[in-house]
Amino acid sequence: MAKGWREPPLFTIVSARSASVLWVVSFCFFENAVFVGIDRGTFLKRSKDGAMPSGTMVFMNAPALSTPTWTRITTEPDGLGESPFWHPQEQRLYWVDIPGRRIARVTVQGLQAQGSVEYWPLTQEPGCLAPVQGGGLVMALRDGIYMAREWGGDLQLLAAAPYDTTQLRFNDGKCDAQGRFWAGSLYEPKGQALGVLYRLDGQGLHAEMDGVVTANGLAWSPDGRSAYWADTAAHQVRAFDFDPSSGQLTHGRVFYQAAPKPTGWAWGSAAPYGGRPDGAAVDAEGCYWSAQYEGGRLLRISPKGDVLVEVSTPALCPTMPCFGGPDFKTLFITTARHGRSQAELAQYPGSGCVWAVRVEVPGLPVNGLVVL
User: Are residues 317 and 354 in the same domain?
Assistant: First the structure.
């Protein structure tokens, strides 16, 4: 059986509503019965002793669909929001708008933006960004990786792009725990697997992995011993053994394989389609949260590659999750609007905006670039 799938329960009983909660009893074996409720869009679990949690999403030991109530953080949509990260010292959320050629940030308290979103216009598409330890930002633009010591400040070229910038650009990336910046590239014509994962350290820019069309989904396990990297076009997430000291990736294997996109599929088609892996984040339990572009959902995948929870999203095209807030239990997602049909946008008017929801398991703090 392919990774990411589990045997379904033997049967499911759906009850009538009770006290505004729809209860579902899912049986694999009777002694392991799980009682599930969906209350005002929040996914709940009740143990056999009747205890009921409140408020946030509660994750289960079997695949389940969660339909939480998302809060819209921004009102002005991006064309393609990406690369969000939470800055704990500033209590701000940062992200990029790739076709909009801009970086954005906003202070967030609870699930509410505090003040207006600040925008930093650029002359090139930003694929990703990360904080710099000691202050500033590092960003991968189309023609290279740059650093700025302050918001809106001068850009210092750290490494020129080692590819044909008329056909490729940097895409998803972030820093590892050792302060090295990683960024992958994508081949815009989409016809060849020319995307490469690069690592920037004190010795320069190094090509670490290749053979993908669209580099995406970069993340590390809490202990730093496993790395994840996705090829969106192949509908695949790969896992690697990671050496924190050297930054080497070894023993690559398929971690999660999504079903391919049906031929001729478009939003509104009758053929089912769950989307393809885009950006990702890892929580404190080591679970990998993968945005499924065109699938209208996030997947929470265990370190073993089992899908634990499918979380519906308020846009058909979620692009990347991240964790933030003082306790890192606020889950943010960026979404896409650029190139989507008018019919789809009528159904998902918040496409392109940033959204947030509270979760039970916290995420990991963002890593920053170490400048040598």
Answer: yes
Number of structural domains found in the chain: 2
* Closest by CA position to 320, among listed 225, 248, 214: 214
Same domain as 188, residue 44: no
242 plus 351 within the same structural domain: yes
39 and 118 part of one domain: no
For residues 122 and 251, state if they share a domain.
yes
Residues 309 and 257 in one domain: yes
The rounded Cα 234 to chain-centroid distance in angstroms is 17
| Residues tagged active-site | 278
Q: Would residue 364 count as lying in a domain?
A: no
pLDDT averaged over consecutive 10-residue blocks of the chain (372 residues)?
Answer: 35 32 36 36 37 40 74 97 97 98 97 96 98 97 98 98 98 98 97 96 96 97 98 97 97 97 93 97 98 98 97 98 98 97 96 97 98 82
